[in-house]
């Protein structure tokens, strides 16, 4: 069994009465001829890496390689524990976990690129918060991750998840769409509702540029992962409530791709525009400071 | 085109912060490290974005980790400089800003073996933790490390390939792809052969027995997860 776009996936799910995660798993074991048990074991390993990555910044003091981030997850947890958070427990946890994974990533810790290293906080942030809050088992979350992978596959196959090609909307936007769809499946939504949630998430981030300060995966990447996680939850809730997307997911992905290609190259991971050239950003970036020191020498 | 699977999307499992600058860089050095018996020193020349941001991306630590044989998800990568010192591996980095035509994430690696011989290769990191070796000891090649790869160095001479493939067939090895590269007519040449299964020492000895074969290197398939 194979599918190459959202329409085919949806048709299969509706005809066979299957969830998106089940269809993706089936594609893996039939079309790609992967062993079913090994595939499940690999997913378990990926999720255990995600779980470890959300917890690590709470136990350790982390400073990133570029020196621009570290300690943000702890601050967010402290705020929530003091009862001073604004967002409510699920969103507060999701954003705290998402920024934490970026701390781990930026300090050369172990993460799962999901779909990329720069957007690696969104999916663990969203799903670990949902698990903690609503008591989903590891197996349920692993199953939902196949749903997320299906959306990521559709995007990769028909557009891009590379910031250099499509801007941050292609990285954090894709991660957010994947997380939104997985969340809808966890809460019993239909495949169509999953895809609508993915569309909402993607459209909400449409046009977002990729402008890493000093070329490093730190700032503004970290906060955008928090945004991606909260956006996933918003999008899932909209869809579960019965709000319908005006575009099917294939169209949404096409729009994202077209927008990505029309973003000037200065704003696609080259660090020649956006936040990367803001005066204060450059002054606080170690990469630029090192360069300045070298020039002085 | 390779079909995209679940773990191409949720993966690779890797040490951050960047699949191209960290995992991909490591992959290139991993290949370089496997081409010698025991590396005693290594020099890296970094180009483009690698040269500009290698410290903040941990590209330097990933490269050293690759020589040491670490996989992209090995948590020792962060402290690879210390591990290299313990293992008696000297390393140095150079930045090249003058060569602007080159692919942005490129590195040249010069590895010195314990017997003093030097292997040089050039690799480019192409995104998502993937990499391609584009030059080997001065000869242009293309090698991904996705499969177990035999690098058969020989003198460019009629019939060599026939002997080589006969040996592979005798040892029941299936060839996935095969490319020939040479410096010039009658000079040093390479056969880069991807095979489906791992290659034993007997195969290597048998290949070394072929007249006009001067060296045989085995690059094991690199499993990212």
UniProtKB/TrEMBL annotation, chain A:
Family label: Belongs to the iron-sulfur dependent L-serine dehydratase family.
Keyword DNA damage in record: no
Question: Which InterPro entries does the UniProt entry name for this protein?
Answer: Fe-S_L-Ser, Ser_deHydtase-like_asu, Ser_deHydtase_asu
PANTHER family in alphabetical order: L-SERINE DEHYDRATASE (PTHR30182), L-SERINE DEHYDRATASE 1 (PTHR30182:SF1)
Q: Which domain of life is it from?
A: Bacteria
| Domain Serine dehydratase-like alpha subunit: residue ranges | 16-276
* UniProt protein name: L-serine dehydratase
Pathway(s) annotated for this protein in UniProt: Carbohydrate biosynthesis; gluconeogenesis
Q: Which gene encodes it?
A: sdaAA
From TrEMBL, chain B:
Pathway(s) the chain acts in: Carbohydrate biosynthesis; gluconeogenesis
Task: Work out whether the entry's keyword set contains Cytoplasm.
Answer: no
The UniProt GO MF terms for this protein read: L-serine ammonia-lyase activity
CDD domains cross-referenced by the UniProt entry: ACT_LSD
Pfam families per the record?
A: SDH_beta
Catalytic reaction(s) noted: L-serine = pyruvate + NH4(+)
Q: Record keywords: Iron-sulfur included?
A: yes
Cited InterPro entries: ACT-like_dom_sf, ACT_dom, ASB_dom_sf, Fe-S_L-Ser, Fe-S_L-Ser_bsu, Ser_deHydtase_bsu
Every ACT domain range:
149-221
Q: Which cofactor does it need?
A: [4Fe-4S] cluster
- Alphabetically list the UniProt keywords: 4Fe-4S, Gluconeogenesis, Iron, Iron-sulfur, Lyase, Metal-binding
State the similarity comment: Belongs to the iron-sulfur dependent L-serine dehydratase family.
Q: What is this protein called?
A: L-serine deaminase
């Amino acid at each position: 069994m194979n599918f190459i776009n959202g329409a085919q996936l949806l048709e299969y799910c509706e005809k066979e009465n299957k969830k998106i995660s089940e269809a993706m798993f089936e594609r893996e074991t039939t079309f790609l001829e992967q062993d079913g048990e090994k595939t499940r074991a690999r997913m378990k390993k990926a999720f255990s890496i995600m779980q470890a990555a959300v917890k690590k910044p709470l136990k350790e003091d982390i400073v990133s390689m570029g020196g621009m981030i570290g300690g943000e997850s702890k601050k967010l947890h402290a705020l929530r524990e003091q009862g001073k958070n604004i967002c409510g427990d699920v969103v507060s946890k999701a954003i705290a976990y998402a920024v934490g994974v970026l701390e781990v990533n930026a300090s050369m810790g172990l993460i799962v690129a999901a779909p990329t290293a720069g957007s690696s906080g969104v999916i663990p942030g969203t799903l670990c918060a949902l698990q903690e809050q609503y008591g989903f088992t590891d197996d349920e979350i692993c199953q939902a991750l196949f749903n997320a992978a299906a959306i990521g596959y559709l995007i990769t196959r028909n557009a891009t998840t590379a910031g250099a090609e499509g801007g941050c909307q292609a990285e954090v936007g894709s991660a957010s769409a994947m997380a939104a769809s997985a969340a809808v499946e966890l809460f019993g939504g239909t495949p169509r509702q999953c895809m609508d949630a993915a569309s909402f998430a993607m459209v909400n981030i449409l046009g977002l540029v990729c402008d890493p300060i000093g070329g490093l995966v730190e700032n503004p990447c970290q906060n955008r992962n928090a945004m991606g996680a909260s956006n996933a939850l918003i999008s899932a809730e909209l869809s579960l409530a019965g709000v319908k997307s005006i575009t099917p997911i294939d169209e949404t992905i096409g729009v994202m791709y077209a927008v990505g290609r029309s973003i000037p190259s200065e704003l696609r991971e080259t660090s020649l525009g956006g936040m990367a050239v803001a005066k204060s950003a450059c002054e606080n970036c170690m990469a630029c400071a090192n360069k300045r020191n070298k020039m002085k020498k | 085109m390779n079909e995209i699977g679940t773990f191409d999307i949720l993966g690779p499992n890797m040490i951050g912060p960047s699949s191209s600058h960290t995992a991909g860089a490591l992959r290139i050095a991993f290949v370089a490290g496997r081409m010698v018996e025991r590396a005693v020193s290594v020099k890296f020349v970094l180009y483009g974005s690698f040269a500009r941001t290698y410290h903040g991306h941990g590209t330097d630590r990933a490269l050293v980790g690759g020589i040491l044989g670490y996989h992209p998800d090995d948590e020792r990568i962060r402290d690879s400089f210390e591990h290299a010192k313990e293992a008696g591996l000297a390393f140095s980095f150079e930045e090249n800003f003058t060569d602007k035509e080159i692919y942005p994430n490129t590195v040249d690696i010069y590895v010195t073996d314990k017997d003093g011989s030097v292997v040089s290769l050039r690799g480019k990191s192409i995104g998502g933790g993937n990499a391609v070796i584009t030059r080997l000891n001065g000869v242009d090649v293309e090698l991904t490390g996705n499969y177990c790869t035999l690098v058969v160095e020989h003198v460019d001479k009629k019939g060599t390939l026939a002997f080589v493939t006969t040996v592979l067939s005798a040892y029941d090895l299936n060839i996935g792809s095969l490319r020939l590269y040479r410096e010039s007519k009658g000079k040093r040449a390479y056969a880069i052969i991807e095979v489906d299964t791992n290659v034993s020492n007997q195969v290597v000895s048998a290949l070394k027995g072929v007249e006009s074969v001067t060296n045989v290197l085995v690059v094991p398939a690199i499993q990212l997860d």
